Amino acid sequence: MIFAALQQALDQRAAQGLLRQRRTLETPQSPHIVVDGKPYLSFCSNDYLGLASHPHLVAALQQGAQQWGAGAGAAHLVSGHFAPHHTLEQRLAAFVGKPAALLFSTGFMANLGVVQALVGKGDTVFADKLNHASLNDAMQLSRAELKRYRHNDMAHLAQLLAQETQGRKLVITDAVFSMDGDLAPLPEILALCEQHGAWLLVDDAHGFGVLGAQGRGSLAHFGLASPRIIYMGTLGKAAGVSGAFVAAEQVVIDTLVNAAHSYVYTTASPPALAVALLESLRLIEQGEALREHLQALIVQLRAGLHGLPWQLMPSDTAIQPLLVGENELALELSGGLRERGIWVAAIRPPTVPQGTARLRITLSAAHTAADVNQLIEAVHELAR
Asked: End of a domain among 285, 313, 328?
């Protein structure tokens, strides 16, 4: 049978506690959702500011569809680049302090496009070992030489950079690591890039909208500005809508417009999404109270989960991983929480290294202190 090998691989995944399955939401994204007919308190969304169902964004999306239609109809370079796309790119560039920006349909496509367009044979990519899968795939597809440094190990990165004297050099890193919640030491990485003549691609999927003054992201958080930084932010997490953008020097953006396959050869996202995102950017800019509330919830959760048999990993962000270790135990804990009406995802290899299965708790400004207390009490109950 031609599918026997596929079924065997799926059966093997199931035996190892690694089989993934989808669950269907029957309500809009929020802390209180209905999944497969059952109500849950959710702690596994990346909707960090609670904007995904914000009435202002819903209204903006409706207005955008009314004015601009449901679809773009073509790639940006053909006839799919609309006025709202153009305005949003200009606003995003200014918001993160870069000369120009370019919209992509997803963060995955943005990372693929940047790396493939900027480096190739004869060049070298230097990457943190815990980078997101999109960055890993991007550097593989680029055909550049790959050098991976130990997680946030600046001595190792410096050693690798010093070994390369030919071709272009591109250092790529998450700003906030999606499964650990910790931050990359961006000032130190930038200093090494300046010393060794490298570009720096910062994937700020989990920092944009949350970190820095007015939610301007990880560069603002660290007070960084440099022409050699290429900044990628996603628009489906804290921004609450969909898509991604790359902000950089004008020559970099012009290069992407001409050479990034994941931009050139795909239909543009609906212009109505850009209209909604312009409203989202306004809410982010004025959302200091949301970010303060989110920070208070992080402090509350970390204090409340102290003293468990499992350790919270070091993180000051909305991503709070509870390190469990074994795949089956992580699944049992996730299942135990679900039985108590709380939805927290169990994260297992290959998303994380072997032996580091975890519950990935994510907080949102839409959560209340009572929501967090309910989670804390449920986890302690399972521990007992």
From this structure: 285
Decide if 75 contacts 267 (C-beta within 8 A).
Answer: yes
| Whole-number Å distance between alpha carbons of 176 and 351 | 15
Residues 6+ apart with CB under 8 A from 361: 43, 44, 301, 319, 320, 321, 322, 344, 375
Token pair of 88 as six digits: 């949003």
Tens-place pLDDT, residues 110-141: 999 999 999 999 999 999 999 999 999 999 99
What's the token pair of residue 378?
A: 């449920």
pTM: 0.95
* 178 annotated active-site: yes
Instruction: Say which of 81, 237, 293, 367 is annotated catalytic.
Output: 237
- pLDDT tens across 133-160, in order? 999 999 999 999 999 999 999 999 999 9
Is 334 assigned a catalytic role? no
Q: What is the pLDDT of residues 310-329, one digit of tens each?
A: 999 999 999 999 999 998 99
- Whether residue 6 lies inside any domain: the answer is no
Whether the CB-CB separation of 356 and 284 falls below 8 Å is answered with no
Identify the CATH number of the domain in which residue 35 sits: 3.90.1150.10
Amino acid of residue 343: W
| Short-list 148, 143, 116, CA closest to 130 | 148
Catalytic residue among 45, 178, 218, 262: 178
Given 132, 169, 206, 367, which residue is catalytic?
A: 206
Query: Do 107 and 145 lie in a common domain?
Result: yes
On the 0-12 / 13-18 / 19+ scale of CB atoms within 10 A, 351 is middle
Domain that holds residue 145: 55-285
Query: Is residue 206 among the annotated active site residues?
Result: yes
Model confidence over 61-102: pLDDT tens digits?
999 999 999 999 999 999 999 999 999 999 999 999 999 999
